[in-house]
Amino acid sequence: MVNDLAAKSHQEHYPGEVIRFDQLDDHRFLFNCQNGVRLLLHVLSDKILRFRYLTDGPLNPDFSYAVPADATTRLAPALVEFREKPDHYRLTTARLICIIQKETLKTRVLDRSGTVLSDDEKGFHWEYDYDTGNDIVKMSKQVPPGVHYYGLGDKPDNMNLRGKRFTNWGSDTYGYVKGSDPLYKNIPFYHVLHQKIAHGIFFDNTFKASFDFAAERADVTSFWAQGGELNYYFIYGPTLLEVTQEYTLLTCPPELPPLWTLGYHQCKWSYFPESNVKEITSGLRDRKIPCDAIYLDIDYMEGYRCFTWSKQHFPDPKRLVQELADDGFKMVVIIDPGIKIDPEYSVYKEGIENDYFCRRADGPLMKGSVWPGLCNFPDFTAPRVRTWWAGLFKELIQDIGVKGVWNDMNEPAVFEKGTFPPDVRFEYDGHWASHQKAHNIYGMQMARATNDGVKQFCYPNRPFTITRSTYSGGQRYSSGWTGDNIASWEHLWLANIQCQRLSISGFSFIGSDIGGFVDTPTGELYARWIALGAFHPFFRTHSSGDHGDQEPWSFGDEVTDLARHFIELRYRLLPYMYTTFWQYATQGTPMLRPLTFLDQHDTETYLRMAEFGLGDNLLVCPITQPGAEGRWMYLPRGDWFYYWTDAPTSGGAEVWATADLTRIPLFVKAGAVLPMQPVLQYVGERAIEQLTLHVYYKNGTAESVHYDDGGEGYAYQDGQRTVRRFTVAGSPQELVLTQAIEGSYQPSYATYRVVLHGLPGPLTAQADGQDAELTTATLETGLTLPSVIAPVGFGEVRVSVAPAAGEKAEVAA
């Protein structure tokens, strides 16, 4: 007898002919095929189309960890026209046209000018997996000439993904290298750039998923998963930046973090006992190296039991945390998912008594070995378990005073086995699932539960959590880092790429272990790495204690001075960094922007990856080779100033940026208003008495923004915030700076020092129509420039060039 199921498991199946369609409401259309296959097409907005394919059975409940149920309420297409033609259906929005072929159910998406954006090759097809009972769901699309792909989270490879294949299956990948796959994070979202028009594909499927960007066949790109629905979103730009914005708003950006989290953090595996922690924090303060956070790794616990403290190493944690807080340090501690099997351990007993731990298919508890030994693991996909887990943070956060929590090993990782067996069962918020479905969201749901607890018990302050593993939408709950990297020049290069890629994948609050976690960097490598880290949103040195010390002073006085130099630059830039985070949190804009995102109409940017934008006005390009005194880099079109010399430079070309160890190639966009504050040893060390506005000349107009709300608490949600919008209007005769103020938050400073870049002398100035004194300001770069003091509420500063002024300085970087 022929085993039909076994035979089916080796065949690809396709939709039959469409025999009817049902319009479910104004924005949802159901296409029914003769063999039972259905396509539910949901028009979420003029720019977002959702495709759900089903092979048999009833329509599954519409549940997603990535897209909250209320995330689409802001979306409403202004125009949806639906027409039936002899051989196809045609759906039109204000921005897109979607064609569904009747014979094959293949789809094509065009913009309103008729440019084809996406065209199915085989389209939706599937293969029955006899071993699991799941359908392996697949989608393949045509690859037009000249197309490029970006995104997909933390993949350690070239920025442009064309010609590559990747898998999403969160994995503990110690000491990974370029090309290692998979890694820790699972973000099934990528960008497509063709004919200078961008769109994105978000494949919301939590099973093990793969992506082929014309690797197997040069004219086909495809994605598939080992179960679940073929459920994806088409997201139109037309700019790459807008694609990321739409995706991030769909999966929801994070709340604003406390300002101190954007300062410098010091970490090691491990700082213990208490005397060692005090030695490190004293070393930072004695050397005047700014720092806001000190971390404790697993050795602070009693036998690696989560939510405990080693009585030997930390006999009085509350006192220690308070003493560190008095010196400006916020304590961050690690919490892993593995709960040690120990009948005398209260967390374990609660988990057993209330059935909070994951079970195998036949009922036994899931057991696996991690740092504490044999452990059970909470099912973070169960709401009651998340509530319990959140409550466990009361003592750490509310009673002891810890300010942040760091989740590790949550891919989930198990020693020797890699991860959980496939038959482990999860509640999955009422949609029971195996580990095959829940694996990729386990770390995200742990971070969710952790964030819930930290937020509950740190109120009225804001929470801070970090995670190693996550899924799309995980940015709502946590910051992150790029995992167990290596102290090598290649990994400095990778840190730059990975953080950019994660940022454009919706996860901007990201950084790397500065200096490398594995092995020991040279002083030069550490100096170059901390220079790059100063421009990453999450700014932390972290290392394995097996490989020696890695504090900023571990490499001699010269490197200590360099580390201090770049950390101080970071603290000066905190107003700009915080504003950039506010833009991310409110508009979905990536904080780090690859060169292509700055000018997708310039084909020279498509294959470049070293240069990146931080926010609206800064361009950074790290030095990633030893012995270099600078580097060639590409400047986007427009006018720029080299930060260190103020030399004006025109973009659209390669330039040489001189950069010894005291510099990182850093350019400021002409017309920018860059807010900077005095150097503090930690956020909140003292009230800021004056903010500096660095105004860069532009022959034309440009706009900048500065956001402020004090950097802590939730009063900003009730209106205690201020958005200051600056406009620079420059001509050969003058520069006019205007300010429009929205909001009622009053900062501690009453004046700005407005520093003028790129203007020839002699000059005269007025503030709000009154003559203002021009003085000189000596900057940390050594430059001496004209400046004027203006009240924080000024409306206009006007600077005029006297008729006898000489010509502008020669442009050179």
From TrEMBL:
Gene3D superfamilies in alphabetical order: Glycosidases, glycosyl hydrolase (family 31), Golgi alpha-mannosidase II
UniProt cross-references to InterPro entries, sorted A to Z: DUF5110, Gal_mutarotase_sf_dom, GH, Glyco_hydro_31_AS, Glyco_hydro_31_C, Glyco_hydro_31_N_dom, Glyco_hydro_31_TIM, Glyco_hydro_b
Keywords attached to this entry: Glycosidase, Hydrolase
Domain Glycoside hydrolase family 31 N-terminal: from-to ranges: 41-212
Presence of the UniProt keyword Hydrolase in the record: yes
Segments forming domain Glycosyl hydrolase family 31 C-terminal: 588-674
A Pfam family that the UniProt record links to this protein: DUF5110
Molecular function as annotated in GO: hydrolase activity
Keyword presence, Hydrolase: yes
Domain Glycoside hydrolase family 31 TIM barrel: 254-579
Domain DUF5110: 690-758
Superkingdom of the organism of origin: Bacteria
PANTHER family: ALPHA-GLUCOSIDASE, HETEROGLYCAN GLUCOSIDASE 1
Membership in a protein family: Belongs to the glycosyl hydrolase 31 family.
Protein name in UniProt: Glycoside hydrolase family 31 protein
Originating species: Hymenobacter armeniacus
